[in-house]
Amino acid sequence: MTSTLDPITGATAPDPAEIEAFAARAVGDAATWMVTTMTMLGDRLGLWRAMADSRPVTAVELAAATGTDERYVREWLSSMTAHGYLTHSPESARFTLPPAHVPVLAVESPAHIGGLHQALFGLTGILGAVLDSFRYGGGVPMSAYPTDWWQGLERFSAGWFDYLLPQVWLPALPDLHETLRRGADVADVGCGRGRALIRLAEQFPAGRYVGFDVHPESIEAARAAALAAGVGDRVRFECRDVSGELPGDYDVITTFDVIHDAADPLGMLRAIRAALRPDGRYLCLDINASHRLEDNAGPVAAYFYGVSVLFCMTTSLADGGAGLGTCGFPEHTAREMCARAGFGTVRRVEMENPFNILYEITA
């Protein structure tokens, strides 16, 4: 159907078929939000974990196993079945979590996204503050974010540190691996709840490890986790802003999805460069995006920009910072800023990952 002129404005009126097609897409997107919300509830209530054995279960049985109300559970099961997350037998009135869905929804694994759902659950609590930032500028400080956000981030990134770091990333970095094996002084900037350093300390016990973060609650959780893991003798954590100066000097410095969040990303890179020993290595993980908006298309990129509004950009702006945003430190910008910070080489590590880029950076 050809476009027509709007009789009131004189502008070209959109094709009704195009309106219908986009309306269908928008409704589908809204349905996806609803499914994500239901999935978050399943994670929060332990419903997925209770179905991890992939045995068919009724709503009554699942409610009894999880201490929840049967009527709500039955409606939740229906929602998840309608979206294809579960299968249903009309004859037995039983629901099954397919085996291929178990690692994604129900158990800890490299594919598990329960932490992502918990983090998104946490973000719902700061939407009002984000609306105010749209209206008046500024941003939402880290102190405003609830525990679910921080715990969810730790759970979501657990796959990096429990699987990818020891099994994929370090084997691709033989010189760095050997430095760690011999026993290195290691600093993790923006360490969060400490999982990366704890895993490194377990794998390379000859090293000495320190993590820095500006979020007090995360540092407290990191200290407790290090003691629980039995590595408190070689791992310590400090609540400190190191964007101006990183105390000490190190063989290895790491940042995992931190630079694009920083209030002063260039200052942080310069501090890392100053604290890196002459033969040291800086391992930088950041977002796999382009500096060209037209290249950042599709669901993953849309998710990146959304998280930027809800956390990455707004927390930086809350501190009067650069507000790079989630997609604000792509390879083009990373190379440019690292050169300005005084680094000599920036090597992109070869790996297949739609979410992140890993760099090995040296003086």
From TrEMBL:
Keyword Methyltransferase: yes
Residue ranges occupied by any S-adenosylmethionine-dependent methyltransferase Rv2258c-like winged HTH domain in the UniProt entry: 35-105
Ranges where the Methyltransferase type domain occurs: 188-281
Pfam families registered for this protein in UniProt: Methyltransf_12, WHD_Rv2258c
Keywords, in A-Z order: Methyltransferase, Transferase
Any GO BP annotation: methylation
Domain of life: Bacteria
Gene Ontology molecular function, alphabetical: methyltransferase activity
Xref: InterPro entries: Methyltransf_12, SAM-binding_MTase, SAM-dependent_MTases_sf, WH-like_DNA-bd_sf, WH_DNA-bd_sf, WHD_Rv2258c
Keyword Ribosomal protein recorded: no
Record's protein name: Methyltransferase
